[in-house]
């Protein structure tokens, strides 16, 4: 009997965990994991932090070195490009090998969105998406170096924190009015900006880049001129203006694309033999009425596992509220649920963490939460968000009311209890 062949293209968080889940569930066929980088699968969150700050002691591999051999998972690394024939169910890899597959998982992730105005400057202009990118940045982030960061999202602020820790002088430029505007409540973004400013970081908001040139004077420097006329000079520029899903393989296979590879709740694409997971995958979101991608470590982890289960015909695990985190300026900040909640209140003092931020919808239900240096409370906060708990405001804000007890009670609220009361 022919041994079934499952091919995974994309050797990142989603792909590596999908391969592991196939074996965990007893799949005995051939598992081939293909990646365009030369490195075994690694995690991306450390790239902007520990890989820069503690390169010798940081290990970011998804699995131990011997894992793939022990699990009989074939790794083909440093193989860029693949040409599919969806009708024949074959995949011709960049090295010329053609593989006949029974099922294919696309986990190709996303690429840094390019800014040609800066790319044209050549050396000392960087993005951060890969381990090789991080290692190149390490040479730039030196004491006294002037670093200009374009983009005040999560990666931009994490890089600002790391650069200051390494002794660099940092300026952050953001075209929108706020930091982390897509993924954090405004009061938290403002607080983080104050923390960065207190460490010497210059932040400029609401001004795009009008021009960028390399000037030769007493020293070679890059000069950015903002739309308001401000000139900012630096020794190196790092920009992070978002990512774009790497859908080349999916498009060549004729799959449906809408802000990524369109998948259903079981990670199935428009081709019944092809699945997708991670940053490249896009699912319809009923609340927003459009297809959305989640660019988080947890989503890649969980969706890779879910795709593997679906490939084996197994039911998916229950979904949980979306969660992610950032570490910057000595702060651990964790997020769960809807960061666009219309109202935010704080348990404790945001200016003096630890504290918890709660996001409420228009009816007073808890739909989002953020912990600042209080990660032990995240599990309970997550449970409350998943249940859309309605707590009396004085209970929600009272540090003497343990979130763990509130979360436990929320699973079976009693009429008239604090958990059954609308926010006052």
TrEMBL record:
Its EC number is 1.18.1.3. It is an enzyme of class 1 (oxidoreductase). Residues 323-407 form the Reductase C-terminal domain. GO terms for molecular function: dioxygenase activity; ferredoxin-NAD+ reductase activity. Keywords: Dioxygenase, FAD, Flavoprotein, Oxidoreductase. Residues 6-304 form the FAD/NAD(P)-binding domain. Gene3D superfamilies: 3.30.390.30, FAD/NAD(P)-binding domain (3.50.50.60). This is 3-phenylpropionate/cinnamic acid dioxygenase ferredoxin--NAD(+) reductase subunit. It comes from Massilia haematophila.
């Amino acid at each position: 009997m022919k041994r079934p062949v499952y091919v995974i293209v994309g050797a990142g968080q989603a792909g590596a965990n999908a391969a592991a889940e196939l074996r965990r569930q007893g799949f005995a066929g051939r598992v081939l994991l293909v990646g365009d980088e030369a490195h075994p699968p690694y995690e991306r969150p450390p790239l902007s932090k520990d890989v820069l700050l503690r390169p010798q002691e940081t290990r970011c591999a998804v699995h131990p070195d011997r894992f793939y051999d022990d699990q009989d998972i074939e790794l083909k690394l440093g193989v860029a490009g693949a040409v599919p024939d969806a009708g024949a169910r074959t995949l011709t890899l960049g090295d010329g090998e053609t593989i006949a597959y029974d099922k294919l998982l696309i986990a190709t992730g996303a690429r840094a969105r390019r800014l040609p105005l800066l790319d044209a400057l050549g050396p000392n202009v960087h993005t951060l998406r890969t381990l090789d990118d991080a290692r190149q940045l390490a040479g730039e982030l030196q004491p006294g170096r002037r670093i200009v960061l374009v983009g005040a999202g999560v990666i931009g602020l994490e890089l600002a924190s790391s650069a200051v820790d390494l002794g660099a002088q940092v300026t952050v430029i953001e075209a929108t009015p706020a930091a982390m505007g897509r993924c954090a409540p405004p009061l938290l973004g403002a607080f983080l900006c104050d923390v960065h400013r207190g460490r010497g970081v210059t932040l400029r908001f609401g001004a795009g880049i009008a021009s960028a040139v390399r000037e030769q004077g007493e020293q070679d420097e890059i000069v950015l001129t903002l739309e308001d006329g401000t000139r900012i000079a630096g020794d190196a520029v790092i920009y992070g203006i978002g990512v774009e899903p790497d859908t080349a393989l999916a498009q060549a296979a004729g799959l449906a694309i809408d802000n990524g590879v369109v998948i259903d709740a079981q990670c199935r694409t428009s081709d019944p033999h092809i699945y997708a997971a991670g940053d490249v995958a896009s699912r319809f979101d009923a609340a927003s009425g459009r297809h959305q991608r989640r660019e988080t470590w947890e989503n890649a982890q969980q969706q890779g596992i879910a795709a593997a289960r679906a490939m084996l015909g197994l039911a998916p695990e229950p979904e949980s509220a979306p969660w992610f985190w950032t570490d910057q300026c000595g702060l651990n900040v964790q997020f769960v649920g809807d960061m666009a909640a219309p109202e935010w209140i704080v348990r404790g003092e945001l200016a003096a963490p630890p504290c918890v931020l709660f996001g409420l919808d228009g009816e007073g239900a808890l739909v989002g939460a953020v912990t600042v240096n209080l990660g032990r409370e995240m599990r309970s906060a997550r449970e409350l968000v998943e249940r859309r708990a309605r707590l009396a405001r004085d209970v929600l804000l009272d540090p003497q009311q343990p979130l763990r007890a509130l979360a436990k009670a929320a699973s079976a609220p009693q009429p008239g209890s604090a958990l059954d009361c609308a926010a006052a």
